[in-house]
Design goal:
Largest sheet: none
Number of strands: 0
Mean pLDDT: 86
Oligomer: single chain
Order of helices and strands: HHHHHHHHHHHHHHHHHHHHHHH
Radius of gyration: 23 Å
Structural class: mainly alpha
Helix content: 55-70%
Length: 479
């Protein structure tokens, strides 16, 4: 074969869960992950690999195993999987020059090229929402492969956050929004934020984008000063929700674009506390992309910008992002120091802080700390796994299923803690709980983390209960 029929994007091939499945020749997991993250249907996988759709379906369901080297070669050649990932020699097409993935066809205005003037922020919000609302399936699939900006290309564009906001001096027609209208808009933004926390992205994202576009249109009119300031606050909150929903859908660059709209909107509305919260979200995105130094820079930018306005909960949350970055960098002492600072800040928290940070309580602190200890436990299970499990159990005991995405992630983390110390019974029980919790959210992030459990469930002489847990993971990931 000269060229693969359906070459997978590099971002898909770099996923750790897919690489493990390919290395183990676990094609049930591999095909399910390719179907979900590569945007290929079972029919397309079958055509590319010269298999029947029924055979692919049987492989995914676990009814058939692929052991033939000839078939494995067809899979490598059909999907553009480098031979080394499958234990094969390099395929003939690997030495050919690869054409870069074409950019999305929609008219994009890179957010890093937009000034910090309020009217530019409004224009960016309008442009992003309009293009997203008409995005077809093919363009959405391409968006999955577009990576977020990092390094100086990102950080240098954010310096405007620390400068005073400019006034909007455009000649605009008179707006008609009143206090009651803003009350309704703020309630809607709050509802959307709760949706995201409970369910993730999915179909609700379109509703958020539509409302965000309406708010941008309202800011194209001249409202009274108090109304305009509140409008920018609503736009910041809606854009922040759109960002996390895009992230859950796997659209990393789009998520970053909306984070930047949220940050610019908070800046225009003079809400430095919410702006710092947005920067914390951007830092978390960098941490998931294995860019801890960038994340640390973003946290410091948030702390500098909101030093006079951040309440105890926000300060505590920023310290946890700082601790996360230190843990990822292997700086264990700094991790424990920052985690301690988070606990100290949270101990003085009251009830008079903004609603959007009210989620950050002792259960959230325990969940985040447990997750970071789990990161360390993957390298040193005996040293950190039990402590990680203790923190995660605290989170589970203090918050229930209403926490949605966080609740599911807690169970997934606890299951991995059990796997790391060889407690199969505890791992199986927690895995079933994790799958059950995951069925109640549409979060792609939850499914991605659940896929990390799959390699623990494969191998020879797997006991029956563990096979049942594996089948449940596979079934959920295949939907």
């Amino acid at each position: 074969m000269d060229t693969p029929r359906n070459r997978l994007n590099s971002d898909v091939l770099e996923r750790n869960d897919l690489r493990r499945a390919l290395d183990e020749h676990d094609f049930a997991a591999a095909f399910a992950l390719i179907k979900k993250w590569g945007g290929l249907s079972q029919n397309k996988i079958a055509t590319a690999c010269e298999l029947t759709p029924g055979k692919v379906s049987n492989v995914i369901s676990g009814q058939h195993q692929i052991t033939s080297i000839a078939v494995i070669r067809r899979i490598a050649d059909g999907l553009g999987i480098p031979g080394a990932l499958l234990g094969l020699a390099p395929r003939p097409w690997e030495n050919q020059a690869q054409k870069p993935t074409p950019p999305p066809t929609e008219d994009r205005r890179p957010s890093e090229e937009v000034s910090w003037h309020p009217d530019a922020t409004v224009g960016l919000a309008d442009h992003l929402t309009r293009s997203d609302l008409v995005l077809n399936r093919r363009a959405a699939t391409r968006a999955l492969s577009t990576a977020a900006v990092s390094g100086a290309a990102l950080l240098d564009t954010l310096e405007g956050w620390l400068q005073p906001a400019n006034a909007d001096t455009r000649a605009r027609r008179r707006g008609r929004l009143g206090t009651r209208d803003l009350d309704d808009l703020e309630t809607t933004a709050r509802t959307f934020r709760a949706w995201d926390r409970q369910y993730g992205g999915g179909l609700r994202r379109k509703s958020v984008l539509g409302q965000l576009n309406e708010v941008a249109s309202a800011l194209d009119e001249h409202q009274s000063a108090p109304i305009e300031q509140r409008l920018y606050g609503v736009m910041a909150q809606l854009a922040g929700t759109a960002a996390t929903m895009a992230w859950d859908d796997g659209q990393q660059r789009r998520a970053q674009d909306y984070y930047l709209v949220a940050l610019r909107s908070a800046h225009a509305g003079g809400d430095t506390a919410f702006g710092a919260n947005v920067l914390a979200g951007m830092a978390q995105q960098m941490l998931y992309a294995d860019r801890p130094q960038d994340a640390l820079e973003l946290v410091r930018l948030a702390q500098d910008g909101a030093r006079a306005t951040a309440g105890p909960r926000l300060r505590a949350m920023l310290h946890t992002r700082e601790a996360w970055a230190y843990a990822a960098m292997g700086r264990h002492a700094a991790f424990h120091r920052a985690s301690g600072q988070a606990g100290e800040a949270l101990s003085s928290a009251g009830q008079d802080e903004p609603y959007w940070i009210s989620y950050f309580d002792t259960s959230e602190l325990a969940g985040v700390t447990g997750g970071r200890l789990l990161d360390l436990a993957r390298q040193a299970p005996r040293q950190h796994a039990d402590t990680a499990a203790k923190e995660i159990r605290t989170a589970l005991n203090q918050r229930g299923s209403e926490a949605g995405r966080s609740h599911a992630l807690d169970w997934i983390g606890l299951a991995e803690c059990h796997f790391l110390v060889g407690d199969i019974n505890g791992a199986v029980e927690s895995t079933h709980q994790a799958v059950g919790a995951a069925t109640h959210t549409q979060s792609g992030r939850v499914r991605h983390q659940l896929a990390q459990l799959y390699p623990y469930t494969v191998g020879r002489d797997v006991p029956g209960p563990l096979r049942e847990a594996r089948d449940r993971i596979r079934g959920l990931l295949a939907t």
